[in-house]
Amino acid sequence: MARIGVDVGGTFTDLVLEVEGEKQGKHRVYVHKVPSTPWDQSEGVLGGILEICRIGGIYPSDVRLIVHGTTVATNITIEHNGAEVGMLTTRGFRDILHIGRHKRPENFSLQFDVPWQSRPLVKRRNRIAIGERVMPPHGEVAQPLDEDEVRAAAELFKARGIRSVIVCFLYSFLNDAHERRAKEIIQEVLPDAYVSCSSEVANVIREYERFSTTAMNAYVGPKTSLYLKNLEQKLVDAGIKAHLRIMQSNGGVSTVEKCSKEAVSILMSGLAGGVMGGRWAGALSEEKNVITVDIGGTSADFSTIPDGKVKIMNPRDTYVGAYPILAPMIDLATMGAGGGSIAYIDEGGAFRVGPRSAGADPGPACYGKGGTEPTVTDAQVVLGRLDPDHFLGGGIEIDAELAREAIRTKVAEPLGLTVEEAALGIIRILNSNMSLAIRANSVAKGYDPRKFALAPFGGAGPLNGVALAEAVSAREVIVPPAPGITAAIGLLVTDMQYEFMRSVPTLLKDVEQPALDKLNRVIDELTALCRERLDDDGVPADNQHFVRIAECRYHGQGFELRADIPEGRIDGERLAAVKASFQAQHKRDYGWAFDDVDVEIVTIRIIGIARTRPLAWPELEDAAGSSPDSALMYERPTIFDDRKSYATPRYDRKKLKAGHELSGPAIIVQHDSTTLVPPGYVAKVSAKGNIHINAQRA
Hints:
This is Hydantoinase/oxoprolinase family protein. The protein is of the alpha/beta class.
C-alpha cells in the first residue's frame, strides 16, 4: 500500500510518499520537491509523482491513493481568465450581481474600484431575466416557470458561444423545482455546457451571496474541471491506477467528480493543506494550540488552531478576490510574502517588499535564470543564511554575486545603504508585514498568541520562525520534520468530507412543535445526502461520522456564527444547548453576548466525514547523551537581526537524533528547508522529529 500527497505552490510542487510495503518489510516515508509548471500544473504533478516513486523504490502502479492540493481555481480568480458565463435569473433581479450590498472597498477614495462591477463574473448582456416566482416562507409557486423563455435564452447562449451557464432564481432555497427544470432545458440545448444551479452550489438564504457563489463556480468550473480530468487521465496513461482525491477549502478531501462540479469548493485547496499539516506537526509534540505559518516562494499563509480544532471562516468573511463566496473555508490569512517576493523602491520613495513575486521563472536573481530584481531569497543569501552549495540539497545552483548585485543596484544604492543593511531591511519589512497578518488571525479574533506554539514551514518558514514568534510573543517555535513538504503531508492527514446545507430560519424563543419537526426533517435529509455520497465512495458505515451545525445569529443581525447541535432529535433541551454554543462563540468573536435577545437559527449544515488513517512519521534514534557534533557540516559567517556577523555552524538535520540540543547561533540544513536558530536561542530535537526552539534561560 502506497499513497502520495502532492501540493502545488507558485514556485515548487511538494510531494510526500508513504509506503507500507512487503518488499522491504517496513513502513517508509519519502519527501521530494520539484519546480512547479505554471503553464500546466499537471506536468509538474505527474513528473514529481514518477520521481518520488523512483526515490521510494516502488512502481507507479503500487500507488493506491493520491491526494492533491491545487491552485488552479485560485489562479483563475487572480488572473481573471475564467469562463464566459451566461445567467438565468428571476425577472426584476437581473442586476443583483451588479448592485451587491452597496459596499465600497475604499469609502473615501475618489478612485475606488468595485471589482464585482468593473470585473463582473457575469456580463450584464449575458444575464437573462426569466418569468417565474416562488414565494416565502414556504416556497409556494406564485408564477410558473416560463419554459419558452428558458429555451430562448439557452439558444441565445449557444449563438454567443457561451458554454458555462448558471440558474439563480430568487427563492430557490425554499423550492428548487424551477431551477432544476431550467437546468434540464439548458442541457437539452447545450448538452456539453457546464451548468450550475444556485440550489446545488449554495442552498441558503441571501440572494446576492448565493448568486455570486454560483457565478464563481461557473467562472472557474470549466477550466478547473478540465485540469482535474486531464490530470486523472495522465495518471492512468502513466500506469498509475490510484484513486485521485482533491483537497477542499474546508480542510477535507473529496473526489474529482465532486470538485469538478463544485469547483468553488477548492478555491483555497492549495492553502488548506498547509493548515492541516501544521496541526499534524503540533500533534507530533502533543501541542494543540498552534499558529501555522506557511511561507513558500510566492505567498505566506497563517492560521490559528485552538485546542487542535481547525477554524472555519464566518460567512461574512468568505471573500475571494472581493467576491463573496458562501463555501466553507478554513479561517486563514494570506499575503504576497515569500522567498520570491520582490523588494523595490516605489514611486513615492518607500521601501517595499511584495506582493509581486519572481515566482519559479525567472525566480530570484541568485538563480541565474535572468531575474534582475532582488527578492527575499537573495537577501537571505547575502546575509549568509542560505548557502549557495547546499540550497535545496544542492539541487539548484545559486550565485551569491548575482544576489548582491541585484540588492546593490535596486535597493542599497538608491537608499544609501550597504548591501548587508539593505538585505536586513528586506527581511525586517517582510517579517513586520507577516506579524501583522498573524495578529489579525489570532489576537483580533480572541486568541492570545502567548498560549500558542508557532509552527513555521514551507521552504522559507523556518528561516523566519523565531523572528515572527518574537514579534507576536508566541510561546515557542516548533519546526516540523519536513518543513518544505508539510503542506503535502497535510493532504495525507485529512479526512474525506461532504457538506450539505439548507436555510431554515427558526426563532428559538417559544419554538413550537411544527418548527422542531421541520428542523429534524432537514437534519435527516441532509444527513441522508452525506451518507449517500460516502456510500458511493465505498466508505464503510462504521467509518461514517456526521457533524451537525446550526448557523445562528441574534434576531436582526446580518450574519451568523456556527453553533454545535447535540446528538439526538432536536427538542427544547438541545435547542438550549445550541443557544449556549452560539453565545459562547459570539463572546469569543466579539467580546460580548446578549442573554435577553432572541437567537435565530438561519442555516442547518451537516458534514459527513470519513476518517483517514493518520500519516505515521518514523521516530528518530535516541541521542543517548551523544554530542550533535556528528551532524556538524562546517562553519560560515552569518549576519543575524542584531546586525552582527557570527561564525555559525551548519548542521545536517538528517544526522540529528532525538534529544540533541543546539545553542544559537546555528543553522540546520535539510533538502527542503533551512532552519535559523539565532543567538540566545536553543533548539532541541524531539523523538518524532520536530525541532523545538526556545529562548535560552538566564
